[in-house]
Amino acid sequence: MLIPNKRGMLLFSKNIPIGAIAFVSSFFISCKDYNLTKPTFAKNDTGPSAGNVPGMAQGNSETGKPSESAQPPTVLSLQLDASADNDALVYTFGVASAKLKGNTLTYGVVQKRSILSGAPLSVEQRSDIIRLCRDIGLSSKPDQYLPAKTWDQEAPIYLMWRSHYASDVKTRIAGAATTSAGGIRCAVDLELTAETDHQSVRLTFDPIANKKSAPAGVLNINTAISQGLLLPNASFDKETTANISEISDDPKIMLQAKALDPSVFKPRIDPIGLAEQCYTSVSGGKSHIANPEAKNDFKISVSVGLAAVKSIAPKEVGGRLLPECKNLKVQQQNETDANVDLSCAQYQAVKDAGLEAGCAWELTISNKSDPEDTIAVSTPMNKLVYKTVNSSDIAKVMVLIPRSKKNPVRNGTTKLIGFNQVQQEMMTDSFDLWLNILPAAFDRDFGSRIKQVSYAPDQPMCKNGFAAYAGYGATEFFWCPNGGMTEGHQAARDTDPATALFRGITLYHETRHTMFWKHDHDDTSYAPCAGTAASSEFYYNLYAKCDTDFCRVLRDDEIRLMKVELNYDYTNDGTGRKSQGICKTWTKAMGIDGEGF
Predict the structure, then answer these.
(1) Phi, psi for 175 (deg, rounded to 5)
(2) DSSP character for 402?
(3) Domain total for the chain?
(4) Are 159 and 98 in contact, with CB atoms under 8 Å apart?
(5) Distance of CA 500 to CAs 395, 461, 472, 478, 489, Å?
C-alpha cells in the first residue's frame, strides 16, 4: 500500500550537475553521469542490441553514442514509498516501492553495489561493511527478491535493503566512520539505458542516519534514526566517492522477519539463593570486611521470546572497565539467563577502585528469525548496603558465617525429619560451618550419600544421653536433644556459636560411623585419629587454617571442644595414640599437646 505522506522523490538528469536538495514531504536528488562507468564499445562494434537491453539505441558504429536523432534526455523522477507491510523499522529488511516518473520510455537496469568511504578501509573494516552493504537491491517483485531488469513509469520496482544489522558491526562502523573523512556509505549504482536515453544514478544508504541527511524509506523516521537503522539517503556528497569498493557477493534478502525492538528487552537482576549481608568489622580500631567470602551471587535474565542471548560481557561504567569487574566469573546458563559470582570481598575490591557498584554487563541478543539482527542491552550491578558488626563479640559472629551453595539442607539433597523450623535453621548453620572450615572432608565423606537426618528425642539412645547416633553403612542418622537441640539451645541460636561448632563436629563424627569407622578406643589397630577421631580435624582447621573474623573469635571454644572430642574418642584407651601421629600434629598446633587433657 502506498503512503502518500511518507514518500521521497529522486530527480536525475544526464546534463544537470549535483544541485540543491529539497526535502518537505518528498526528497529530490539532481544528478548527472558523474564519472560512473558507461557502456563503451570498440570500433565497428555496435554494442548491445535492443534485444539484449530493452530500449537500447542502435548507436553510431564509430562512437557508440546515441544517434543524432536521439531526443534530449528527459528529467526523470523517482518516487519512493514506504510500506507498512514491509516497514524498515518493523522488519529486518525494508521494502519501498520505486516508481519512475517523467518519461514513457522503458529502461534497462544494471545495478552494482559498492561501499563509499572517505579513506581506504582496512580488511577488517571492509569485512564489516560488506555485511552491511551487501544485502541491497532493486527487485521486480515486492514479496521476494528478483533483480529488476527493466523499469518504466507504468509499474514500480522495489528497493529492498537490510535495515537492521548486528550491534557489534554498528559499533565498529561508528568507529570507522569517525576516522574516515566524509564517512562511510552503502551505494547502489544504476545504469539506466533506454532507446533515446542513457543515465546513471547512485542511490546511497547511511548507516548512521540523521535528520540533516533526510533519510527516507521508513514510516517513522525519528525512531529509525534513534535505533541506528540503515536508511536510504536523500543527499549525496561527491567527495565521499574518493574510495569505492565494489561488492561482488550476491545479496541475501529475507523479507518478513520481525526485527528486535530494543525497548522490549529489560534485563533483570535477581539474587541466586539467599543473598548474604556484607559486614564491616569495627574491631581493632580498623574497618575491614568481616565476612569476605560471603556470597551475593546473582542472575541476569531477560525475556527474549523469539530471540536468544548470544553473549554477555563486562561493560564500561563512567568510561572505565575495572579489572575487578573483568575478573568476576560470569556463566551463561541458557538463552535467557547468566549467573555472576560475587563475594563481599569482590564487591569491596570494586568499591576500593573508586566506583560504588562499578560493574555492568552488556547482553547481545540475537534474532532467531534473522541472526544478523542483533541488539545490545546493558545492566549495572546492584549496590550492596553494608552493616557493621563487632566481630570480637562471640555472640555476634554467627552472622559472619558464609552460606555455602553445597549446604545439603539448603539445596534439598538431605532431608531433615522431625525438626522444628528453628532446629532446621540450627542444623543448616552447622552444615555451613563444616563446609567453610573443612569442605574437603564434607565432599569426601558426606557429599550426597546421607539422604536423611531424623530428630528422635524419644528413642532409647537419645534418652541415654547421646548427642546423635548412626549405623554402619547407613545413609541416614538420628539426632538427639543433647546434640545442641534443647529449647535452651534454640533460644540461644544466634548468640551461641560454640554449640553450632559442637553440632558441626557431631555431623562429621556420625558420618564417619556410616563409613564403617568405629570409635578409636574400640579398635586399637587404627592409626592415631583414624576412626571417628578424624573428625577432630574440624577444630584443627578452624584454629590453624581459618583466619576470618568468625574463626578467630571462636578459638577459645574450639580448644575446649577439641579436648572433649578426643577424650571421648579415646575413652579408657591405653595405647597413647591421642598424642601420636596426626593427633599430635593437630593438638600441638593448638597448644594442647600430650595425653594429659
Answers:
(1) -65, -40
(2) P
(3) 3
(4) yes
(5) 12, 21, 25, 17, 9
* 345 and 232 within one domain: no
Place of cell 528487552: 265
What confidence tens digit (pLDDT) does each residue in 435-488 have? Answer: 999 999 999 999 989 999 999 999 999 999 999 999 999 999 999 999 999 999
> Is residue 207 domain-shared with residue 242, that is, in the same domain?
yes
* Listed residue (579, 426, 576, 399) closest to 504, CA to CA: 426
What is the rounded average pLDDT of the residues 382-407?
Answer: 85
Write the CB contacts of 496 (distance below 8 Å, at least 6 apart in sequence): 395, 489
d(CA 78, CA 9): 5
Interhelix angle for 421-437 vs 537-544, to 10°?
A: 70
∠ at Cα 116 (113, 119), nearest 5°?
150
- The model's confidence at residue 206, banded by pLDDT at 50, 70 and 90, is confident
- Does 8 or 199 have the greater pLDDT score? 199
Residue 505, φ and ψ in degrees, nearest 5: -75, -30
Once rounded to an integer, what is the mean pLDDT over residues 571-588?
94
Domain of residue 299, residue span: 263-389
Same structural domain for residues 426 and 519? yes
421: exposed, middle or buried (Cβ count in 10 Å: 0-12, 13-18, 19+):
exposed
Query: How do beta strands 330-332 and 307-315 pair?
Result: unpaired
Choose one of 367, 389, 411: the last residue of a domain.
Answer: 389
Secondary structure (3-state) at 204 = strand
Say if CB 78 and CB 12 are below 8 A apart.
yes
Backbone angles phi, psi at 527, to 5 degrees: -65, 160
Check if the beta carbon of residue 53 is closer than 8 Å to that of residue 108. Answer: yes
Report d(CA 553, CA 500) in Å as an integer: 14
pLDDT at position 105, please? 85
Buried b (16+ CB within 10 A) or exposed e, 382-400: eebebeebebeebebbbbb
**Beta carbons within 8 Å of 24's beta carbon, 6+ residues apart:** none
Which one of 206, 237, 259 terminates a domain?
259
